[in-house]
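Thread: Modeling a multi-component assembly for a lab meeting

Hi all, long-time lurker, first post. My supervisor asked me to bring a structural picture of a complex we are working on to next week's group meeting, and I have zero experience with this. I have the sequence lines for every component (212 residues in total). Could someone generate the structure of the whole assembly? Inputs are pasted exactly as I received them:
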Amino acid sequence: MKSRPFVFINAAMSADGKISTYERKQIRISSDADMKRVDELRAGADAIMVGIGTVLADNPGLTVRSGGKNPTRVVVDSMARTPMDAEVISRKDGPTIIAVSRSAPYERVEALREKAEIIIVGDKHVSLPELLGELKSRGINRLMVEGGATLNWGLICEGLVDEVYVYIGNMIIGGKDAPTLVDGAGFKEPIKLELLGVENMDEGILMKWRVR
Ligand SMILES: NC(=O)c1ccc[n+]([C@@H]2O[C@H](COP(=O)([O-])OP(=O)(O)OC[C@H]3O[C@@H](n4cnc5c(N)ncnc54)[C@H](OP(=O)(O)O)[C@@H]3O)[C@@H](O)[C@H]2O)c1
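Re: Modeling a multi-component assembly
Sure thing. I ran the full set together rather than chain by chain. Output:
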């Protein structure tokens, strides 16, 4: 048995591969049908993970809008920078785990502990393989990753992603500094994908890939 959950990335990007603007401002790329699909994916996941960059830029709640039980929310936040009023640690919306590194300031970690479970993994940065092992041991078998660009990179780099689902919306965002689906330093050798399916959805396309 795998010592980590099944991991899939879900994202919406523009026709030119951007996931937000050069100002890192959240922008609606998904169509109504895609929003519904994302909600169903969330409802079927044990946990939803985001990077601290996404929390600071978008302040997402990561809840299931159609009702029912909310999955556990997981924030990857090496220095415990999650704001105390972030939507993702609002207790009424279900449990949250904040993964921090051993370099996170003690007071910040203790303050966040009031609102969320804290997992400490990695020295300077959160160790993603260790974190996934911890999540698995807590019964999280199906993990949905909702970005952003740097976390997607970190997970793919470590070989921790099984599938990638991308909705390509009918727009061009542009900007060399706008985040793309996967940022980071880039790969010398591309990561190969196997196409699982393509679907027209409203005025965009949904693509599903398996990471080889
Ligand atoms: N269209 C979409 O589907 C979608 C979805 C989500 C986000 N977004 C957009 O994406 C942008 C945010 O992306 P982002 O790249 O700035 O932030 P991000 O990927 O959400 O978070 C990245 C941060 O995670 C932390 N981290 C800790 N350990 C890590 C590790 N091992 N590997 C990688 N990251 C690690 C790092 O900060 P520390 O060192 O402080 O821990 C890193 O800077 C926003 O503009 C948002 O709107 C779009």
